[in-house]
Structures
1.
Amino acid sequence: MTTHASLFDRIGGPPAVAAAAELFYRKVLADPALAGYFDDVDMDRQVAQQAAFLTMALGGPSAYTGRDLRTAHAPLPGLTDEHVDLVLVYLAQTLSELGVCAADVASAGAIAESVRDDVLNR
Amino acid sequence: MRITILAADAPGAAGRPAPGPGLDCAPGETVLSALARHGVALPSACRAGVCRACLVRALDGDPGPAGAAGLEDALAADGYFLACQARPADDLTVALAGGDIYTPARLASVRRDANAFRIRVAPERPLAFTAGQHVALRIPAAGADLVRVYSFANQPEQAARDGAEFYVRAYPGGAMSAWLAGARPGAALSLGRPSGTCCYQPGEPGVPLLLAGTGTGLAPLAAVACDALARGHHGPIVMLRGAARPGGLYPAAYLPQAPARVRTCVQSRGEDLVAAVVAEYGALAASAPRAYLCGGPGVVARMRRALFLAGQSLRQIHHDAFTAAAAAP
């Protein structure tokens, strides 16, 4: 039974993901290479977006799609693979710090990787 | 989508739709902006879903979930929604919020201090609120009424006795400033429903409270500190008072006095205040403090971001309504 539960459920469902979203967003916001993209963004809204993104990456009941990511990132100038790489590193760090095992971190990373082209609008 | 307005407040018009086919609302457009485009100016202030000045009621049709986010269940169940947030996917019939949301009141006193008006407002019926909450003040005006949102500066018991107190920053050319400059005690206005979460949280009497603000924002912070002490809070309370810009420090003499139990530090500039808040937070972080931020939108946003980066959860940072207003277009 538990082997079929999604990582989203196994790490504790919505409350755990909400906490993870803050941890993740804090890492992103603390990186000077990424912080500038968040200067004019409402923080509550952004944490909610990060929670939606994490829910998707953790295989949870997400309504978030590559199309949403494409729309959200389209207006941002100068986004490159390096930015996406950094975000994937912070995602992996966040999950590791929460005690998620390496195999699950890798599978979340693979889902996040699958929307790279949407984020970079290509 | 089309929006039909029922002029529920207009004498004789209750229950009858306005003539015509309704007003069109483009996909993704907010009700507030669609109505404005058609010359229907709803009262509005923050346009970020915080101040509730643009609260309206759907009598028919679904305004969508965004318009009801953050409203009390009872309000949402009655069809109320925020016009600045709602992007309907459906035809709507709406009533502009009237006497059922606003409580008639009289201006009890006006005092002009330094760069602010300090006013007391006596509502016709007692208004339930918690120290630190805010409320919309609605002033009758030709065209759209003037609505601005202010934090309560006194406690509910004092407000019930002497009138609710507000500090209104005086702006040259500001509509509220102009009205207050000419207003006499007894003038009619109305108060909306108090809301906001910049309030003392009972149930954790030992945690440190870190209060920081600029200008007249110190008044609601002092009210929160008084409320905390009245409810038996025994953890440390630190209040940081700063100016959003050099020379802008609002004189302490005009502010309600913080209880002696509160340790107060004064900083002279906005950036000093951000650094000071982070330093105080560092000293208190191990005890899971709650932070309360009120005042200039820019400095409140900077303090909030700095505290978050220093490790504080956004859920443990309370701030007044006007931060969001700065981010709104």
2.
Amino acid sequence: MRRFSLKSLLQEASSGHQGWERQWRAPEPKKEYDVIVVGGGGHGLATAYYLATVHGVTNVAVLEKGWIGGGNTGRNTTIVRSNYLFDESAGLYEHAMKLWEGLSQELNYNVMFSQRGVLMLAHNHHDVISFKRHVYANRLNGIDNEWLSPEECKAYCPPLSISPELRYPVLGGALQRRGGTARHDAVAWGYARGADARGVDIIQNCEVLGLKRHPDGSVAGVETSRGTIGAKRVGVVAAGHTGVVMGRFGLRMPVESVPLQALVSEPVKPVFPCVVMSNAVHAYISQSDKGELVIGAGTDQYVSYSQQGGIQIINHTLDAICELFPQFGRMRMLRSWGGIVDVTPDRSPILGKTPIEGLFVNCGWGTGGFKATPGSGHVFAHTLATGEPHKINAPFSLDRFRTGRLIDEAAAAAVAH
Amino acid sequence: MSQPFRLPSGGRIDRKRPLSVSFNGKRLEGFAGDTVASMLLASGQHLAGRSFKYHRPRGILSHGSDEPSALLSVDWRADRGPGYRDPNNRASVVEARDSLVVKTQNHWPSLETDIGAVNDLLSPVFVAGFYYKTFMWPRTFWDKVYEPVIRRAAGLGEAPEVKDADRYSNRHAHCDVLVVGAGPAGLAAALAASADGEKRVILADEGLEPGGALLNDVTSKIDGKPAMDWVAESVSTLDARENVVILPRTTAFGYYNHNHVCMVEKVSDHRADAPEGLARERLWQVRAGEVVLATGSHERPLVFENNDRPGIMLAESVRAFVNRWAVLPGNEIVVATSSASAYQTALDAKNAGARVSIVDIRLEADCGPELQTAKDAGITVRSGHTVIRALGKKRVSGLVVAPIDPDGAIGEKQTLACDCVAMSGGWTPSVHLFSQSRGKLRFDVELDAFVPGTSAQAERSAGACRGIYDLAAVIADGLAAGRSATGATDTAAGSTPQATASFTGFQPVRVLPTDADASKVKAFVDFQNDVTAKDIRLAVREGFESIEHVKRYTTTGMATDQGKTSNMNALGLVAGILDRPLPAVGTTTFRPPYTPVSFGALIGPARDELFDPVRKTPIDGWAEKNGAVFEPVALWRRAKYFPQAGEDMHGAVARETKAVRNAVGIFDASTLGKIEVVGPDAAEFMNRIYTNAWLKLKVGGCRYGLMLREDGFVYDDGVVARLAEDRFHVTTTTGGAPRVLRHMEDYLQTEWPDLDVFLTSITEQWAVIALQGPKARKVLEPFVSGIDLSEEAFPHMTVQSGFVCGVPCRLFRVSFTGELGFEVNVPADYGEAVWKALYEEGGKHGITAYGTEAMHVLRAEVGYVVVGQETDGTVTPDDLGLSGLVSKVKADFVGKRSLARPDMVAEGRRQLVGLLTKNPDEVIDEGAQVVDDPHRPIPMRMIGHVTSSYASSNCGRSIAMALIEGGRGRIGETVHVTTPGGFTEAVISKAAFYEVKGETADA
Ligand SMILES: Cc1cc2nc3c(=O)[nH]c(=O)nc-3n(C[C@H](O)[C@H](O)[C@H](O)COP(=O)(O)OP(=O)(O)OC[C@H]3O[C@@H](n4cnc5c(N)ncnc54)[C@H](O)[C@@H]3O)c2cc1C
């Protein structure tokens, strides 16, 4: 792998950039792999990367039905934070946060992780209690999260209106300064390049259609649109389509898939310094490096695999954005889109074993899994390499829906991203 | 500035109505019918902005909504004050009128001299994706140093600084046929679809007048007359039909499911005389039976070195400026083309007085009749020539061209001096809306374009948007589409007007052949995002092969024009490099909106007091008059407390809570959710929805009901009264009302459709007045008729119907304070009157109005839980100490199975208890965490959290409720509770703190 650096960039600049190599190969599938990862989103690619780098498992293929990063990884609003309430989630997301903090260097790929701070606004008594509960829990878990008064919120995010005349006045906010955003595509590409360099085959336009099993029921490989490929272990990381893939394997998952929409405005000069989330009114906003306001909406009310949601969801989100930031009323929506998110009953992910020997699953990230990408890949690689969950992902078993040991972050805070 | 490039006659401008616009502080002159772009060109100003990344000088490329370069900041009503400015307006669609103030963007210190242009010199470094490869060291520098610099350099215009001063409106419409686009195809379709006078037809077009491409056309004839005569006749025919609505200045921007098409209409931006208060834009949400897409096509630029210089324009746009706006974009025009259509530009420009020559990539043999026509007109045509590069910087000054030898080699170069280039690389059907409708595109090799394939909705395309370019064929296609949209089977019926033939056909070229080092030259594919052909080559070299990857890596097609002029060139280029057929590279999916839409239009009236309109109770007015401080609760506003002079919240709450315990309080409980459950199976339904038993509840009895989600956690609660065998009056929490109704309907409709039950929300129908306290009965007595209020006749947890103040009422004997209590339900319209009567009478007994804060304190004093405060969706009935409410004998109820899961009954679950701080004056934070030992290292184990916490004057100390692991077994133990600065000590107690004196709720 040719390393990226200012030096190599300058060298290439003088020779018309003719010397750059492919960031990943386009190999034909082999007959068999030690591990097959189904789904070339951020989580799947990170899994492959850590399988190779941490566990030395390099006979790995990532099978992607379209193009890598084309699922939710390339569609999300890229909010990264780790100030979750419950110990289990705090452990998982903080594990990811630590990896984010060194990710560009680790991958030798600038993923533009920008710790501009994530400010969550409280608009009613219930929000205040809930966010304080988070702030206190985070403090005891060693995760940064501060309670800000409305004036402090305004100082941190000058465009914010804290007028008491607001429909839902800002009563305060919880700020995680280490939170922020990252460049979603770069995360997929950086992991792909790193994994490829260590021997992982990234195979695009390869849809997984079924599971091949040994007579004892254990995994033998997968059927794909490019033929049968053998595997000792298979990890499904298919986000919104997990239900479909697992259905093809004969397993029903406790997930529902719904469209989640986002939009960007036309680009403008820097006006918005941080990330603001307002769960009470369903608005999430930041500004990209290009200058677009990136705005996340809520989920549609109906389950669907159509990546097109209803416009009323967008309208409602913009209602809220313009209430909080009245000066954005004349901005224009440049592009809107939807992704299919897989939601579990307790809104927490599933990372671990399945009833089929050799088959593992990493899904249920719903509306908020981008932030977990490095951590999820890291612990899922451990799970695939050793056959057992890492202690960080052990609580996120499929089994918890049977035992009732749920990790219900959404119930606790109704936070979407 | 005067108008040196304005032609003496012609054009669709009104020379009798001159106007002026301020452009970068200078006065720009023009006429009604002009756009800012045509005024700029009339004055000879091509330089109109600086590009996104390299800050290169940019001019006006197009005359329509596909303009990528000439983006302006416009203050639409500078004369009316702030709040009317916005950035990134395309000069070509800003209709000129007096008092517009426009400015160019993205430069410093000025448009002419822009320091940012050094980026152009550094461009060998700033290639596609360069930022992924660097700025990584030192590790902390990205967001502190590099990123702020990049951000400042990017970003085009400046965001508005103040609140939008305009208003917007919103309209829903239904029609049988929606026709999008009022060019020849759309007009024909609308004529045909509306002919029978039955079908309601809407015809929308983004332009200011119907006509589409014919507005640029002064040569074509329809039925022997100028084409625009046919347009005028068609429009007047349509105007006269009552079943037709024509919407000019209306862009269909989003095509959603079920033929739901969203359009935005410009209502007042173009009117200098617009009355204040008139909406700026209107959002149309059209549900159409059938849709005809007649959205035309976009011209492709040619890709050659410096093809972005000001003065280099699309050929059809040059023609449009000449014919429609009577502006000559240059005196010396070179038409560079691979398309027949550009010959018409050459002819029209020559007619208008320009010196014109043509450079055609095609060989003579590959041309059609256009070649001879041009030659006959005396125009020099250089066939089989390529463009090597453009000269000039802020304005094109020449074009270096060369013949391409039969073996492909570049022949001798020659420089053609010019001040304007009209280029055309052919045409791309505008399939954006079709693609948004989820229709499947099909690649047509002949047309070198994606065209609509299989439809996904009740929709059809007509004319240029499906690759039909000849005028006569376009009209015929439009007529057929209009007829088929009405369901007519004989789609060929009726007479088709005869039109003169158009010049059609083009040779696809991706990048013009050149002998320059392709890895060095800047030949732009995406003008706005500064993406060059070499960027695209680099992306492919680095393994980005899917067009979606190329887009994301290079940002081609991601600008505010969404790639209208660039997508096909980018696709073709990638396919060429990979030597794959074009469709194998993928088509790009088009995402709404077609052109950018203001947030203002999308939110419409939903702002200020119409953003989530406040729900108010019938007693709200009284509360306001009596000085209540309000708080938002769900969509409601509720009186939180009623301060008297000089009182703060704590003082008020202390007074209010004391009054309830010692005399009587009056409380507006109207926001409580209320649902009537009616039908022969009502009791059975209640039995399944709630955890406790309902079948045996007597008529007239009340019962506290607990409701779980399927996962076994507490979902809602409330008192339920049985009014009749088949009728229950259910109450819910204020915030829970809508979701409880949804939850009930969900089960009723999907799980138990066999149950004969109806659910009706009655929240708004009843005002609820709670009288709580030892003197409650005394206050109520004088007003009641038909009900015996005595303890024997009307015990706790019963309901009776009768009259209060002569008004029919449902009277509940219930309490949320532990005191004797009644809840008076009267029809909402009588709420305030009854409240006032009770309040007045209560004066004799020391009545005090109390708000939600006191209500919370009072219930906590006696240990009642509030769902949503003590619970958070992870709490079981047993956690709350309410397992007595969970039936052990019922066969089933929602959540029963989940309650049996091992972790739901495991030891060590968090249980509801009280917490008493060691210091009785200290009120701990709600949400605080509880630990055993605050000296443990981080991460520290947490054993619980505080759910409610108050200063209680009735208890003479602070009280709190908490969920603590195994809490009920730990009464008396000391724990540590977080405070903003550290920890404080508290002792675990029962979750009830106050002993009611005298007659209690259930004496
Ligand atoms: C609009 C939106 C906004 C969001 N905002 C945020 C946010 O701000 N912060 C945050 O943390 N999270 C956010 N999320 C959630 C986040 O995007 C996802 O949780 C996360 O990206 C999931 O990553 P993934 O790799 O698991 O999934 P994906 O990126 O979706 O990858 C799954 C891949 O599996 C492939 N696949 C599916 N079926 C098959 C098959 N049969 N064979 C082969 N391949 C298959 C798909 O093509 C896809 O590429 C948002 C999501 C959306 C849609």
